[in-house]
Amino acid sequence: MARFIVRRLAGMVLVLFAVSVLTFAIFNLIPNSPPAQRLAGKNATPTLVKSIEKDWGFDEPLPVQYFETMKKIFTGELISYGDELNVEERIVEGIPTSFSLCIGAAVIWLSFGILFGFLSATRVGGWLDRALTIGSVGGISIPVFLIATLFLYFLTYKIELFPASGYVPLLEDPIQWAYHLVLPWFTLAILNIGFYSRVLRSNMLDVMREDYVRTARAKGLDERRIMVRHVLRNSLIPIITLFGLDFGATLFGGAIITEVIFSLGGVGQYAAESITNLDLPPLMAITIFGAFFVVLFNALTDVVYAYLDPRIRLGSSAQ
Amino acid sequence: MALEPQPDPALPAGEPDEGFPAAPAGVDAEGHNPWYLAYRRLRRNRLALASLGLFGLIVVFALAAPLWAEHVAHTGPNTTHTTEKITVDGEKREVVDVEGKPIGPVWFGAGGKFFLGADGGLGRDEMVRLMYGGRTSLFIGLTSALITTILATILGLLAGYYKGWTDGIITRTLDVIWSFPVVLLGIALGTALAVGGLKIGPLELSGNSIWIPILIIAVVYTPYMARPIRGEVLAMREKEFVESAVAQGAGSLRIMFGELLPNLWSTVIVFFTLNIANNMLLEASLSFLGAGVQAPNSSWGKMVSLGTESIYTSPLLAFAPGVLILLTVLSLNVFGDGLRDALDPRSKVRLTRAEAAESAAGGAI
After folding, report:
1. I need a surface site. Which of A10, A195, B86, B323 has the fewest CB within 10 A?
2. Is the Cβ pair A30, B193 closer than 8 Å?
3. CA geometry: angle B308, B311, B315, nearest 5 deg
């Protein structure tokens, strides 16, 4: 197990380096204009562009430029030239909001996804299975902003059931915190509920064909026990890897749109504001931290996965 | 669990499916090629056919934009009518009232003008904008899916066929792209290129070119398609038909594109269909956030973002483009699933009545 973790971490460090190089290239290399001009933003003055060019080392060779950029991002001295505010401070401010949104949504999508997938798989071909299958295709096809605007119009305006915007910190008032987040949570969860119930359903149908399930039946175990203890438990393992990929993708995907529509003011909304203002330094930092988070989270879920399923770690150390 | 192969329930009893010829002894079994069999299975899947029809309708809706604009609405997608008045059922009404609220749907009350009303503040014809926006959204979805499919197929073939360091380089590069959350990578590239423009060799694209979001979306989704194709090629290249091609002296290119590629078609076609849906969703998200299609172009995602500004007074402006995206993506997803079932009857996602019968016999809870 220790060997597996060390190997996984070594691979991860290489990926992190490659990710930082690609981020540098996206912002400072690939676009077809002087980088200092782009970073300065909309109201750039020639003096500002000159000082950025010197500050970021854009007149030096590429490795120096890369090093200067990374130094700025990782020492927390990156500022937005639009509003003169420190980028990292604003990101840190938004983190509790973004995590409240995504963790809550994850709890909802895992619970409903597993429930619906289980119900579908144990009733293959029945009316409930068919209804859930249709519902899940709908869930993966509906754009986040359509759910959000429908919620906003019908549940906060037509029927004033929920607040339309704002975030209340958890420690300040837990009830208001949850009350303000109910709609954003469901907005964000619906896509993955559809996706997870589909995946779990097909996993369970595969596991049901395994010999050990037949053995369990032959032993005379009752059906409920077979389904829960043998089929469901084994079908859940691949869901963990999937969750490792999807949590990050949701945090920096659907969550951005959800935060904007419900004016929650987290990291996602900061990213959206920066796009509107064509302000690149905050986007640079959010991109690199976002990708780092995803890589770390994946490595973590892989370790959990290997812990739960010995075939993985034994298989890979035998190579 | 039944060990006997189950007859394909999509085919009527008696008709042989590939894999088990049911020809009586002494009579030559009539052979059908697999594409014909797939077509026959698809033809029986009414839900998939209805979805294809719906997608076709949406394409026609978008293609008809210039016709509607010229002959019915008599206005363009970017023409503003802020100060104008129109006659609706004999009654004079302002397109945009004093408070800035645009006119709602008037259907054919004004002879087809402002069928769905006008958009916020600028008084542009919403119906015309929806049709033109659909052209952009569909064009981006289809073109980028085509590029992704070609890129992913070539990369998957090269990596899976050559293995070794070619595979190493391709796989590692794709892994790095894969590490970025899709929307975040799209935002980073979209904003950076919208500010700076792009230059690839002699080809120069300005920041508001429609090809920038197309290329971005194509690149972002390539790893998701190239990985499974590579896996399939890896498995396939050990098969006898590749060995026999090598024995006949076929070169690498001939084997990759003459032997392996034809066997990948069914996978590639299914991926392509589902990829259009994903690409359209990503385009909509990016355009909603301002990192996709740039002015003066417009797309459904951009229209939703404009519509949310006046969600309480004119909700239709946000709902109409949103619902059109939903219908397009839904039709492509359902059709793609049907296509997969038809082309690969043994694929995992399939729900057949045979499976249902099996688990019913096993006694579901």
Report:
1. A10
2. yes
3. 115
Q: How many Cβ pairs closer than 8 A exist between chain A and B? A: 201
Judged by phi (left if over 0) then psi (alpha if -120 to 50, else beta), residue A78 lies in beta
The interface pTM score, or ipTM, of the predicted complex is 0.92
Is the peptide bond between B296 and the residue preceding it cis, with omega within 30 degrees of 0?
yes
Q: How far is CA B136 from the centre of its chain?
A: 13
Cβ within 8 Å of A, B 310-339: 311-312, 315, 318-319, 322-323, 325-326, 329-330, 333-334, 337
CB contact under 8 A, A149 and B319: yes
Q: Which residue of B has its CA nearest to A144?
A: B285
Distance between CA B322 and CA B307 in Å, rounded? 10
The H helix count followed by the E strand count for chain B is: 13, 4
pTM: 0.89
In this model, does residue B340 exceed pLDDT 90? Answer: no
CB A151 within 8 Å of CB A163:
no
pLDDT band at B362 (very low <50, low <70, confident <90, very high): very low
Q: Distance (Å) from the C-alpha of residue A249 to the closest C-alpha of chain B?
A: 5
- 3-class secondary structure per residue, A166-235: CCCCCCCCHHHHHHHHHHHHHHHHHHHHHHHHHHHHHHHHHHCCCHHHHHHHHCCCCHHHHHHHHHHHHH
Q: What is the DSSP letter of B86?
A: E
319 residues of chain A, pLDDT tens digit each: 788 888 888 889 999 999 999 999 999 999 988 899 899 887 788 999 999 999 899 989 999 999 999 999 999 889 998 888 999 999 999 999 999 999 999 999 999 999 999 999 999 889 999 999 999 999 999 999 999 999 999 999 999 999 988 899 988 999 999 999 999 999 999 999 999 999 999 899 989 988 999 999 999 899 889 999 899 998 988 888 788 888 988 999 899 999 999 999 999 999 999 999 999 999 999 999 999 999 999 888 888 888 887 776 665 443 3
Query: Which residue of A lies nearest to B177 if distances are taken between CA atoms?
Result: A19
pLDDT, averaged across chain B:
85
Coil, helix or strand at residue B215: helix
CB contact (8 A) between residue A33 and residue B1: no
Closest partner residue to B333 among A23, A31, A141, by Cβ? A141
Q: Which helix (H) or strand (E) holds B208?
A: none
Looking at residue B28, what is its pLDDT? 58
Q: What angle do CA B199, B201, B207 make, to 5 degrees?
A: 15
Q: Domain map of chain B by residue range? A: 126-350
Whether B282 contacts chain A with CB within 8 A: no
CA distances for B201 relative to A24, A168, B37, B190, angstroms: 21, 51, 46, 20
Positive or negative, the CA dihedral B348, B354, B360, B361 is negative
> Choosing among B45, B183, B310, which should be mutated to test the A contact, i.e. which has the most A CBs within 10 A?
B183
pLDDT at B108: 83
Cβ within 8 Å of A, B 102-121: none
Spatial CB neighbours of A172, under 8 Å, sequence gap ≥ 6 = none
φ, ψ for residue A79, nearest 5 deg: -120, 155
CATH superfamily of B126-350: MetI-like (1.10.3720.10)
